[in-house]
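Figure 2 data, in text form.
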Amino acid sequence: MRLLLVEDDQMIGEAVLDALRGDGYTVDWVRDGMAAGAALHAARFDLVLLDIMMPGMDGFEACRLIKRTPETAHIPVVMVTALEQQADRIAGLEAGAD
């Protein structure tokens, strides 16, 4: 299974990357929503792990872009965030997160 990790924080990105690769996943890591779009068009992924709080394009907008693009709309998106408010969860689901 090939995963795309979209995370701008170096420490968190490295920790998640190491854990997932340690479990046998193939993982590509990009640091923002625009880079995620480029990666999704350059390679085939089975799942996107998407941070919400990122500079430039936040995770909500990146998710909407992924889900409204026919070539990537089928890819499951899981939002990974420290945000705890129910409104943030609802916003993620409304953006198309799975």
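Caption note: The mean pLDDT is 93.
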